[in-house]
Amino acid sequence: MHKLFVVMGKSASGKDTVFRDITQREELSLKTIVGYTTRPIRDGEQDGREYFFVSKEALLTYQDENKVIEHRAYDTMHGVWDYFTLDDGQIDFETGSSIMLGTLESYGQIRRYFGEERVYPIYLEVEDGLRLERALLREKTQKKPKYAELCRRFLADEEDFKEENLKALGIIKRYDNTDRELCLAEILKDIRLNMGI
Ligand SMILES: Nc1ncnc2c1ncn2[C@@H]1O[C@H](COP(=O)(O)OP(=O)(O)OP(=O)(O)O)[C@@H](O)[C@H]1O
């Protein structure tokens, strides 16, 4: 059965890293669903790879056209940043399985939209201290590090990912991303199981 895999986790839990590792496995033939955002592009990112970076005006047009599957808006230190998934033909269960990055909120909306039997959550976890270290190291490599935003996100994650929220969405399995290789092996095993391959 064709599925949609959604990679989730708190900030700096390794979503982008794990996502890249999974999608490099060509034998899985997973189609990569790229989300949309109005936040500014970060150093090292590429339009259409991590996200499609679009204007607020573009989002409003898509909303008028009823093309937005799920949408989240975050009030950051740098203004409102929108993240959304567009019904632009990328997700097609007839032609194959796909994978995307998500949040708990987007996962909930997407699960409701497509049905829970079609959507499989890949929820990453890293011990808080290690995760904060990784977040700080990553931020230091940016031309203009945004440390206050880093702290805001770290604290916001506490609320967003609380146990009752995970439970409400049926997320039981956690993928521990302390060790990249072990984590990836566990995820690949479950993806294959889900796809029946
Ligand atoms: N298993 C791992 N071991 C060591 N470092 C890791 C591991 N996974 C990710 N990292 C590093 O941790 C940092 C955060 O990872 P990544 O950017 O993939 O997280 P993210 O969940 O996508 O973050 P955000 O949601 O904040 O954008 C990166 O610098 C990445 O290289």
Automatic annotation (TrEMBL):
Residues 2-192 form the Guanylate kinase-like domain. Keywords: Kinase, Transferase. Pfam families: Guanylate_kin. GO terms for molecular function: kinase activity. This is Guanylate kinase. It comes from Anaerocolumna chitinilytica.
